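Need tokens for this chain, all 220 residues.
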Amino acid sequence: MSESPQRQKAVLCFGDSNTHGSLPMEFDGDKRRLGPAERWPGIASQALGPEWKIIEDGLPGRTTVHDDPIEGAHKNGLTGLRIALESHRPIDLVVIKLGTNDLKTRYAVSALDIAKSVEQLVMMVKAAIDPETNRACEVLLVAPPPIAETGWFEQMFLGGAAKSAQFGVQYAEVADRQECGFLDAGTIIRSSPVDGIHFDADEHRKLGLAIAQRIGRFAE
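Here are the structure tokens for all 220 residues:
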């Protein structure tokens, strides 16, 4: 009798427009998007190889725990993550990269509050025991890079640049408390000078390779 093939290790990449692959926006309503092989989850998939299955779940405008009063309640990451965990199981690892949209002036929250909000997502993943594997997923928490207040996003994110500069330290403390993996994207990439929020293709490549390297350690 032949042996059954080994199941791929599944990685859920849960994030916002920078996981979706949105290009730096030159105007309101600019919906351009990088191709599957160009955005960071695709880059990570290529680097990791066929033993890993990368599941992309990037929603533009997604927050950590907030219903968006303008764009809609579906932007709430806490709600979306619960759905994703059940939809894509079994999952071995969840990469969480959120927090940038919480910097919008409409939410009026501090960097500390954003870190504590993303901690709720980490805790949700750790509490979700998969019925097939009878265990919880591993978590890799990624701190978004600092933003710049420029372009047509400037007023929407007014005051956000200083808060985002604290993400690396604040998220590292969350990862330490929750005993999960951590990567500070701000030490690897920079947000585009065009809109101060999104990443150019070269930055996606750098991030994808760094995340793939970090994911690989979970298999060691």
